Amino acid sequence: MNTIATRCDACGALLEIPADARFATCNSCGSQLEIIRTDSTVSTKTNQSQSGGPQGAELEKLRLQTELLALDAEWSKEREKLLVRNAYGAPYVPTTSRAIPEGIWKAVVGAILIAFISGKLPPDRIEAYMKKTGTWVEHSREYSQTEVFAILLGCGLILWGMIGGYLGYEKAVAFENARSRYLQARQKCEERLRKL
Description:
about 200 residues
């Protein structure tokens, strides 16, 4: 794109503008400028209608509408990053009401598995043995490799449930915070647009 150099009529700052531009905004002072061209020169003139005239209000309205579109596009990208995917790859919005129960049921399944394997010796026999000997240490039962694997699997399920629940909760909070920031920014922009 071809650009030309000129100076701001209001503050004197150097401006680089597109060669075919009719209007520009000064990056230094924010003045709305009209581009004046002659055969040999390019200059700027402060747009007098910006201070409340219809053209100034229309420019502000366009700026706010552009800001709204940019906010929506930014949120769409951020939302896509924050979505969680299920086992089949389908995206869904993470929520705390889903993350916590998922973590709990995994931990409960692990605890049940451990209790089932560890409880193979009937409780009444354990209690009778403890009363007779006065100690639990003397009665040690050997677990088979399958039972050890099942107990380790149960511990893994508990750990998976706790970590998964925590991470799911964190993702849900991050999503909700980002959504809240987006909605607040959009609401402020819409309020300013309504006032015009």
